[in-house]
Design brief:
two-stranded antiparallel ribbon; globular; 128 residues; alpha+beta
C-alpha cells in the first residue's frame, strides 16, 4: 500500500491524538503525560527517543543513510494558565492552545511518515 494511503487510513486515529492532547493540557515544564504520549507515538514507529530536554522535552531521532545532513521539527506541548469564558473540555484554570495541541499531534505524524517512507536506493552506474 502506498505511504500516503497508509497515513490516510489512520486519519481518524491522528485526529484523535489532537483531541486527546487538547482535552488534557499541561503547563510548561509539567507536560509529563503529554511527553509520554509523544514519546510513545514516536517509539511505536521505530523512532529513537530521548527524554528530559529542559525537563519534559522529547527528541525523536530518525537516522537514514550515512549523510551528515540534519533537519529539526519542533512543537510546543504546553498549555496556558488562564480561564476560559466559554464552555471548555479542559480542566479549570487551564486552556489548551489549539496550535500546541495541533502541532504536537502533527509532529508524530510527520515522523511516522518519514519512518515508513521507502528508503532511498542507490544504484551504481556501470564503469566505462
Amino acid at each position: 500500500m502506498p505511504v500516503l494511503d497508509r497515513i490516510a487510513a489512520r486519519h481518524d486515529e491522528m485526529i484523535g491524538w489532537r483531541r486527546h492532547l487538547h482535552a488534557h493540557p499541561e503547563l510548561a515544564f509539567e507536560e509529563e503525560a503529554t511527553a509520554d504520549f509523544v514519546a510513545n507515538r514516536l517509539a511505536a514507529v521505530g523512532i529513537e527517543v530521548h527524554r528530559g530536554l529542559a525537563g519534559t522535552g522529547v527528541v525523536g531521532v530518525l537516522r537514514q543513510g550515512q549523510g551528515r545532513g540534519r533537519i529539526g521539527l519542533r512543537a510546543d506541548m504546553d498549555a496556558l494558565a488562564m480561564t476560559s469564558k466559554t464552555a471548555s473540555l479542559t480542566p479549570p484554570g487551564l486552556r489548551a492552545r489549539c496550535t500546541a495541541a495541533a502541532t504536537t499531534a502533527i509532529l508524530p505524524c510527520c515522523w511516522e511518515r518519514h519512518a515508513i517512507w521507502p528508503k532511498p536506493t542507490t544504484s551504481t552506474a556501470p564503469s566505462t
